Amino acid sequence: MISSMTKDERSLLLFLETCSVDYGGKIDARHMNAEDFRIAESWNKSGYIKFGRICWRDISEDKRSYWVEFSEEAWKDAHAERRARYDRIEGNRTWVRTEDLNKDGGPLE
Asked: N or C: which end of the chain has fewer CB within 10 A?
């Protein structure tokens, strides 16, 4: 599925993956726009993810009012996109690692 996703869909997938890993699946909806909600609801209907609201009495001070759970396919796609994003960023790196320098501080040849 990842190969057919738009840039916005891939970005949302990684945002939701971060919410899953770092916040136990709780989502701060202030970081989502109308298109993100449309995509998430579409994925929910297809079973790609599970997505919904947290009961009002269980919303804490962090204001995370939605939740997400990933299917196995979504986990695999998120991992693939995370790796692809790293490869894109690494290809544009503008800094040098210290181990890439010679004793005089110049680049290794």
From this structure: C
Buried b (16+ CB within 10 A) or exposed e, 66-99: bbbebeeebeebbeebeeeeeeeeeeeeeeeeee
Distances from the Cα of 56 to the Cα of 20, 53, 65, 70, angstroms: 20, 8, 8, 22
Whole-model pTM: value is 0.80
Would you write out the chain's pLDDT as a tens digit for each of its 109 residues?
788 999 999 999 999 999 999 999 999 999 999 999 999 999 999 999 999 988 877 667 667 778 999 999 999 999 999 999 999 888 888 888 887 776 666 665 5
What's the one-letter identity of residue 10? R
Domains annotated for the chain, with CATH where assigned, are 2-92 (1.10.10.10)
